[in-house]
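Summary of Year 1 activities. Much of the first year was spent building the evaluation harness for sequence design. The harness presents a backbone, in tokenized form, and records the residue chosen at every position. We chose the following record to illustrate the format because it has been used consistently in internal testing since the harness was completed.
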């Protein structure tokens, strides 16, 4: 068997939930999808398990004993990048938005369909693996003083490296590859996230986070402009207004 024919190792998923029934159901569905699953019942245990065996993705409940999910997410991402899908109670919109703002890639509200969660996990893993693959190459993208190199997954502004999450990098690269085009949130979710369904506030929050990292004044963005009633456009040279 050649090196290129070698089977891909099962994705390591850390499921963090203090409800043993939820953890068992989620773990069972993920294992049937070919993943290797480990379970943690609280925040400190999640950090210990992640340190011992770094996961490819974390399914993380917001409400946890010891440390809540937001703090676990902060500490994990401060250590090194890892995709995170948060589990939240239905109606806790502020918590969901905060979760996205601390770096979660997505959230799923309880009660949820385990099959939907598996689809979200598989979508995030596909994009993560493509980002890590040497085959993920393309021309260096430039707009003003912003440069994005898809081959090295490196983005800079005025020579200073930008600290972007996986989704923020993909979103910026998508914008730079299509300057001045108008993109709906539905299009961005489909093309950048790879989902045909989901809460469009995910896109809104990521655009806001991206503006905070690339704009001189995020309240009056120069690059990522809001097109009222439609979506967003990337304007490399013109001044714009915030949403």
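For this record, the design step produced the sequence shown next.
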């Amino acid at each position: 068997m050649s090196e290129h024919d070698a089977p891909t190792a099962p994705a390591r998923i850390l499921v963090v939930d203090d409800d043993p029934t939820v953890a068992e159901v989620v773990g069972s569905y993920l294992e049937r999808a070919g993943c290797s699953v480990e379970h943690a019942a609280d925040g400190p245990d999640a950090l210990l398990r992640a340190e011992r065996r770094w996961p490819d993705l974390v399914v993380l409940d917001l409400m946890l004993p010891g440390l809540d999910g937001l703090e676990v997410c902060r500490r994990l991402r401060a250590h090194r990048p890892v995709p995170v899908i948060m589990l939240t109670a239905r109606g806790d919109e502020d918590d969901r938005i905060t979760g996205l703002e601390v770096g979660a890639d997505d959230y799923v509200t309880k009660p949820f369909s385990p099959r939907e969660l598996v689809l979200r996990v598989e979508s995030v893993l596909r994009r993560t693996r493509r980002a890590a693959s040497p085959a993920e190459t393309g021309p260096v993208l430039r707009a003003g003083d912003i440069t994005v190199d898809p081959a090295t997954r490196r983005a800079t502004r005025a020579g200073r490296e930008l600290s972007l999450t996986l989704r923020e990098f993909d979103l910026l690269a998508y914008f730079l590859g299509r300057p001045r085009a108008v993109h709906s949130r539905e299009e961005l979710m489909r093309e950048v996230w790879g989902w045909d369904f989901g809460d469009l506030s995910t896109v809104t929050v990521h655009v806001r986070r991206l503006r905070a990292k690339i704009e001189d004044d995020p309240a009056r963005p120069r690059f990522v402009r809001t097109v009222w009633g439609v979506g967003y456009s990337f304007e490399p040279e013109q001044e714009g207004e915030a949403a």
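The chain has a mean pLDDT of 84. Quantitative recovery figures across the full test set are reported in Table 2.
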